[in-house]
Amino acid sequence: xxxxxxxxxxxxxxxxxxxxxxxxxxxxxxxxxxxxxxxxxxxxxxxxxxxxxxxxxxxxxxxxxxxxxxxxxxxxxxxxxxxxxxxxxxxxxxxxxxxxxxxxxxxxxxxxxxxxxxxxxxxxxxxxxxxxxxxxxxxxxxxxxxxxxxxxxxxxxxxxxxxxxxxxxxxxxxxxxxxxxxxxxxxxxxxxxxxxxxxxxxxxxxxxxxxxxxxxxxxxxxxxxxxxxxxxxxxxxxxxxxxxxxxxxxxxxxxxxxxxxxxxxxxxxxxxxxxxxxxxxxxxxxxxxxxxxxxxxxxxxxxxxxxxxxxxxxxxxxxxxxxxxxxxxxxxxxxxxxxxxxxxxxxxxxxxxxxxxxxxxxxxxxxxxxxxxxxxxxxxxxxxxxxxxxxxxxxxxxxxxxxxxxxxxxxxxxxxxxxxxxxxxxxxxxxxxxxxxxxxxxxxxxxxxxxxxxxxxxxxxxxxxxxxxxxxxxxxxxxxxxxxxxxxxxxxxxxxxxxxxxxxxxxxxxxxxxxxxxxxxxxxxxxxxxxxxxxxxxxxxxxxxxxxxxxxxxxxxxxxxxxxxxxxxxxxxxxxxxxxxxxxxxxxxxxxxxxxxxxxxxxxxxxxxxxxxxxxxxxxxxxxxxxxxxxxxxxxxxxxxxxxxxxxxxxxxxxxxxxxxxxxxxxxxxxxxxxxx
Length: 677
Fold this sequence. Notes:
Blueprint: E1 5-9, E2 27-32, E3 38-42, E4 45-49, E5 56-61, E6 70-78, E7 82-83, H1 85-98, E8 109-114, E9 118-120, H2 122-130, E10 135-138, E11 142-144, E12 150-153, E13 162-168, E14 172-183, E15 189-195, E16 203-206, E17 209-210, E18 215-221, E19 237-241, H3 256-261, H4 270-277, E20 281-286, H5 322-330, E21 336-341, H6 347-353, E22 357-359, E23 379-383, H7 387-397, H8 406-409, E24 425-429, H9 441-455, E25 458-462, H10 464-469, H11 479-509, H12 522-526, H13 535-555, E26 567-571, H14 609-613, E27 616-628, E28 635-646, H15 651-663
Helix pairs in contact: 1-2, 5-6, 7-15, 11-13
Domain Scytalone dehydratase-like protein Arp1 N-terminal: 51-180
Keywords: Signal
InterPro entries: Amidase_dom, Arp1_N, AS_sf
């Protein structure tokens, strides 16, 4: 509540009260970071306080002899008219129960606000004495029984409830938002980040690492700050793939060379700004395969490959949204991670980490201010552990005013109905299924049986490759032609926006030298020939792609009066329940598998179906199976996932199916750590 308030220095006599005094960890200053903000500790927990741009600065007439330079404080809000011990105790208990940033160490000071005219009774004073609270801030509608020594503060202030770091001088009190610093033990982030609070919507990087293990520290704010905020993503913590612009942060693309020649972003990507507008909190930039390549773990050079928490801790995170998928599988303190998918870069990381992730319909999200791989094939997706939260995020994020223009994709305008016009058929492609691990296939069959029962669906086995090749159109039915068009789209976009500017700038700066680039990109850019791939061939490729999409939506996955997409097609983008390792040689074992293995009777990998034909492809976790680890020499568990494919534009219908499957207990929230279930 805004209004005049006071800071009361209460010097309680311990002997007066029977309640034991709570012992708290003292505030310990550690350092000021390069952006003028404070790193401090309370016991063995590290925090960041946004002291350069505090949440509020209030003039005050303070007795300089009584002023304490820095005090951890807690803002409490209530509608009670009589503020008693029970009221305070209940509020503090709710803070402790629901927030991972707040602790009792922030009770050195209390700022108490009430929406009604209220009085702080003697039981509350006794309770605060037992908490060893030394400073009390009272809103102008709150009075206290007894005589209190006060410091007059001039002017109104409005603060969200929660923990702060207060700096008290002779003429002001500054309230700085605080962030708990978590170790990125699986090295999934490039760096942490936080809102600068400078009024310009900038973010600041947090270049703090734990020296012993070289883990980045990731700042997360108190969830209490967003209590009462009804925006769909209010207070939700989100990691961002390193190809999205976030204002004030470096967009590295996973490349030190690119970082060297480019400044921090002066605005945020449309997709990122949408998250911020919905209440989401950006907590850091996440590792990715350089320039969104599909590089294997052993091919990474500029960055250390992230670790997968599943199984023995030595499994692949796939690519290119490697950090995002594995971070969501690793950390309870992280709610979501956004990535991108051109060829498989959301779906495979979701598969190997046992999380929810998607390649949405082509055109569903603007990719303005996002480093491209293929401007007409790139898509934006989100990782989550919880199917309900995944759906909530996605439906709030993907809005019609953010769809890509047809001039970018070359496809028809996108329409996305949000209905229960569910598919009637489950398509089971025999050229991509069954799963490779015989122990995993029963899990898939149980999933199929549940889908059939819940939605009254019919299962149809068919050969995807033969079906497409039997189309009468010579272009759409030719996998070689369609794949070549996709390759042109991807190659030209990345070259014109990244490759050519980078190699030109580097040669200018370093006496004609070629920049240090990971092997997944180096060969293509050292020999790039614009007489073969250029804007003309790119435009022709868009026409070819659209032709394939039109045939696909007419002949294979099409709409009917009853269904947005008459069928949902299942396939496996992962390893079929086999472990795939970050260490190359371990994948040579007969009981392990490389990723992206082309099935013997298929012409393209299952991952390439929707990049070519524009459809929506969602990866969902359905179980786990044991394997014997060549790392721990112990039985471990590997996730089992399945891909759900529907016609372009039927994303929200598929989300509604997934929600119903979750209601029925078929799909579940996955855990963090070694096992998903």
